[in-house]
Design brief:
4-stranded antiparallel beta sheet; Immunoglobulin-like; mainly beta; elongated; 8-stranded mixed beta sheet; single chain
Length: 302
């Protein structure tokens, strides 16, 4: 058997994008050689960026591309930033090759083409407001698209939760009483353009449930011997605790008559025959937020 050559495998997942004034390059460092042996000695990384001619000529690109060799190789996923200004308005090819401890390499990675365009300004004046539907985010910016990131409580990561073309978004999945930290980036993609803005500072909000359920509707009263039966449409509130029944005699003031469970009905057995009563209903949630009163209904007891 001949001795092993210990040549690191080629990188196959190199990608690049613009972020602010920088070009951001990312790839995975190989863990095995071309002979499927585990790499157990330090490797050296060479990254090059240069004009991408049409049609692309690898030898011409390699001869004119600018090398970057100060890239640490101590992590599995390599992330490297370099200034974009030198290539503004140009199409560039970006490639990387990995050298083993013996100086051997399997060659260039996949060559990634990037059109370097003017940077996108980061969104400004990011605000978060507590609204009935959830958390409403607003900001100022001129990017064609935006991506919203959310970090929950003390978590370290902030995954993307949505994309929008407007400088506003409502997070309807936010729960009450939990700190949420939001940030927004502008982006533009298409063809060889992959440009993203810098992220603004996070904005933090803890929402509180101060919103009452919808006002009950469809109240119907039916007089019966010795009682008045009330029915209404069931509330759609997800945090409904029950209903509150108010009654007034004649043209008198409404007074609380009873609290009910989630069943949208009530039987008033304290009426007196021949007297006229008015009824109105409210909905109450689990935090005691009470809705407006329904439209009053009038009925005479039998």
């Amino acid at each position: 058997m001949p001795p092993a050559l210990h040549i690191p495998q080629r990188v196959a997942d190199l990608s690049a994008s613009e972020r602010g004034s920088q070009i951001f390059v990312q790839f995975t460092l190989p863990t095995h050689t071309t002979e499927s042996l585990e790499i157990n000695k330090p490797v050296r990384i060479e990254l090059r960026v240069g004009p991408a001619g049409r049609p692309f000529d690898l030898e011409a690109w390699e001869a004119n591309a600018k090398p970057f060799t100060d890239i640490p190789a101590d992590q599995g996923t390599i992330k490297y930033d370099l200034p974009a200004a030198e290539w503004l308005g140009k199409d560039v090819g970006i490639g990387v090759r990995i050298f083993g401890a013996n100086g051997r390499t399997a060659g260039w990675s996949n060559l990634f083409t990037l059109s370097v365009v003017p940077p996108l300004a980061k969104p400004t004046n990011l605000k978060a407001a507590d609204v009935r539907e959830g958390v409403q985010l607003t900001w100022e910016g001129e990017s064609p698209h935006y991506r919203i990131f959310r970090r929950v409580a003390e978590e370290s990561s902030a995954p993307a939760i949505a994309e929008t073309e407007r400088p506003e978004y409502v997070d309807r999945a936010a729960d009450y009483g939990i700190p949420y930290h939001y940030s927004v980036e502008g982006f533009r993609t298409g063809g060889d353009i992959h440009v993203f803005s810098d992220l603004p500072a996070e904005v933090t909000i803890i929402t509180r449930d101060t919103y009452a359920p919808p006002t009950p509707v469809g109240v119907v009263v039916v007089p019966s011997i010795g009682s008045i039966e009330l029915m209404w449409e069931r509330s759609t509130a997800s945090d409904l605790a029950g209903y509150r029944v108010y009654r007034a005699q004649g043209e008198g003031a409404f007074e609380k008559l009873a609290d009910t469970r989630e069943t949208p009905s009530y039987s008033d057995r304290t009426v007196q025959a021949g007297k006229t009563y008015r009824y109105t209903i409210t909905a109450v949630d689990k935090l005691a937020n009470e809705s407006e009163k329904s439209a009053p209904v009038t009925v005479s007891a039998q």
